[in-house]
Design goal:
The protein is mostly beta strands. It contains two helices and ten strands.
C-alpha cells in the first residue's frame, strides 16, 4: 500500500504539478458542533472523498477523534471534505483542542493503539485488484491536533 501512495504522489506531481497531503485546514465551532474541513491533492485533483474505514482498520472510539474537556456524541461525514463532530455540550473557551489519532484506544493485536478510521476513498482501483480482490485505493490522513 505504501507503494501505491508513492505512485499517487508521483502521478500527481507529474500530471498536476504538485502534491499536498490530506489534512485539516479549518475547524469551526458553533455551539456544540465542530465542522472540520480538509484539503489535499486526492480530494481536490482526483475527486476523492472522506469516508470512515470500517473494513481494514479496527474501529476506535469516535473513529479516532477526541476533544479533551468535552464528550463526542457523534462523528459523521457531511460532505466530500467535511467531518462533523457533535459534542455533549459547548466546550469552555479555555479548553478547545481537537485531536485525531493521537490518544490511545483499545489495544488490538498488530495494530497501534493510536489510530483513527478516517480515510480518503477514491474510485481508483488498487493494484491488489489484479489478483481478484476488490480493494479501492484508500489513504488515511495523518495524526493532528489543533
Amino acid at each position: 500500500m505504501l507503494g501505491e501512495t508513492y505512485a499517487d504522489v508521483y502521478s500527481s506531481i507529474v500530471d498536476k504539478g504538485a502534491w499536498n497531503p490530506v489534512q485539516p485546514v479549518s475547524a469551526v465551532l458553533s455551539g456544540n458542533v465542530v465542522d472540520i474541513n480538509f484539503e489535499g491533492t486526492p480530494l481536490d485533483a482526483f475527486g476523492a472523498k472522506l469516508s470512515i474505514d470500517s473494513d481494514w482498520v479496527p474501529n476506535t472510539l469516535n473513529h479516532g477523534f477526541s476533544f479533551p474537556g468535552a464528550t463526542i456524541t457523534a462523528v459523521e461525514i457531511t460532505g466530500a471534505k467535511t467531518v462533523r463532530l457533535k459534542l455533549s455540550a459547548a466546550p469552555e473557551a479555555s479548553n478547545r483542542t481537537l485531536r485525531y489519532a493521537i490518544d490511545a484506544f483499545d489495544d488490538v493485536t498488530y495494530w497501534p493503539t493510536r489510530r483513527g478510521n478516517l480515510m480518503v476513498e477514491t474510485d481508483r482501483r488498487s493494484w491488489w485488484n489484479s489478483p481478484g480482490s476488490e480493494y479501492p485505493a484508500q489513504r488515511s490522513p495523518l495524526r493532528y491536533s489543533f
